[in-house]
Amino acid sequence: MDRRNLLPIGQFSQASGLSVTALRHYDASGVLVPAFVDPVSGYRYFRRDQVRTAQSIRALRQLDIPVEEVRRLLGGGEEELAAALQAHLRAAERRLEVQRSVVHSLLSRLTEGAEMTHRVTVRQGAAERILVRGATLDNSGLDAFLRGAYQEMYEVAGRGPLTFTGPAFVRFHGVCDDENDTLVEACLPFWEDGAQPTDLPEGMSVRELPESTLACTQVEGAAAAFPQILGAYDAVADWITEHGFAFAGPARMVYRRWTGTPDHPDNRLEIAWPIDEPADDGPVPSDRLIVA
């Protein structure tokens, strides 16, 4: 074996900026395989042209890209790698935006208190019959899901045509952010004595929501966009707990005024949370499925 074009692992480590331990790990995981392994000593040797590959691996790992993903990206072409890096950059910028918003929200709560930013009121919610499309997802898929769900539901409603009795709203059955997924339901309320939807596609249903008491706050413009809107949910949750009420159903995001652009200054959303007096006999049922 001609070793003149090979570097022993120690020298290769210095040239690439990867430790000997890391090189052994990347060999075992198939990310960077030595050009030659001495059958007697087990010593690893790398080609000189593998230095740039090793430097790329080091850079990708500094971006916290998992080892398996690094192996896949290096096995693809340059266009795929460039696209992946652009996507990673956009995700990193989004995480920074979320972190910046969270820090500002915490600082505001420390200096002013959530009640100074979000005024919470109580209103009565009438019993409603609603058209529902649900999915389990995190925040990254929320906008696309809601756009598709409402488009499909409006098509179904138009065949009736249904008479709407209030604005569209979304029910969140848990935390929906960049780290958690939950059941999300897009809802359209319609008049139960009028035309009824027929031939519902799979995944769409009709439900009845009971009369309820709702703790609410409204947000407008940039405050209605993610992640700023999370402060409104926190404010309502704080108000409910501080005033001794029980949570009686999923939180709702009501489209009081919606332009279609998440951070448009004319947007106005309402965060409405069903509440009840605390009870010892378990949670209050929140809705009933209607078989259409």
From TrEMBL:
Domain of life, per lineage: Bacteria
HTH merR-type domain span: 6-76
InterPro entries xref list: DNA-bd_dom_put_sf, MerR-type_HTH_dom, MerR_fam, Reg_factor_effector_dom_sf
Entries under Pfam families matching the protein: MerR_1 (PF13411)
MF annotations from Gene Ontology: DNA binding; DNA-binding transcription factor activity
Record's keyword terms, sorted: DNA-binding
Protein name: DNA-binding transcriptional MerR regulator
Natural source organism: Streptomyces nymphaeiformis
